[in-house]
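debug: dumping io for the single-chain case to check the tokenizer round-trip. Nothing else runs in this session.
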Amino acid sequence: MSTVATTPKPGQQRVADSNAPKVYKLTALDRCDRCGPSSQAYVRVTMKETGHDLLFCGHHYNKFKFDLVDLIDHDKTINEYDRLDTGNRLIGSENS
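debug: decoded output
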């Protein structure tokens, strides 16, 4: 069964299609500022004072996230760390 997108009536909100694929903003060209070209960035933070962006791989974001809490603009943070979610399975545990 297919659904047709309609314009919501005044006072109504459009419901997001839960089956729609998530659109990511960071690409394979975005690299971790700490690792350099060896690691893809999954988190972009913007510094409050300067407006400059920092890119982090998952490892380095986890390492520095508590130090950055008061220094970054949380509204501009892009966190795509969920792209690394593999269902929390351990390697070799496919048969368990």
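debug: round-trip ok. The beta strands are 43-46, 53-56, 78-79.
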